[in-house]
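Translate sequence into C-alpha cells.
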Amino acid sequence: MKERIKTLAGNFFISVTLINLAMLILGKLLRPDQQFGYEVFVYPLIYGIIGMIPALFVNGNRELTLKQAVIKEIAQMTMTVVVIVAFMFAGQPLTREVVISAAGVALSVVIVYCLVVLIGWLIDLKTAVVLTEDLKHFQEESRE
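Result follows.
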C-alpha cells in the first residue's frame, strides 16, 4: 500500500508539471490573447487530482502479462480522458469552439498520460538497474 501511494504521488507531480506545459501550449494555440489571474495556478492541481481518480479504481495486486498491462493502461487512459473532458466541458453548449477545445484537451491528456507512464517506466528501469548492480556487487563480495 505504501508503494502504491508513493507511485500515485509521483505520478501526480509529474502530471501537474506536464499539465502546466499542456495548458501553456493549448492556451497559446487556441486563445493567445486571453489573460488569467492567479487562480489559474490551482487548475493543474485540480486536473492532476481528477486524473488520479481512475488510477484508484484500476488497481490490482496480481502480476499482469504485458498484454494485460497494456490493456489496463489504455482503459485507465480512456477513463482519465473522459473524466477530465467531462469535468471541463459538461454543461457547455456544443459549439465548434467547444468541440475543438475538447479535442485539444483530450489529445493533450493522452500525451500527458503517455509521458507520465513513460517517465514512471524510466524511473523504475533506473531503479531496477541500480538494484541489479547492487545485487551483483553483493554476490561477488559474498563469494570472496
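Note: Residues 85 and 102 are 6 Å apart (CA to CA).
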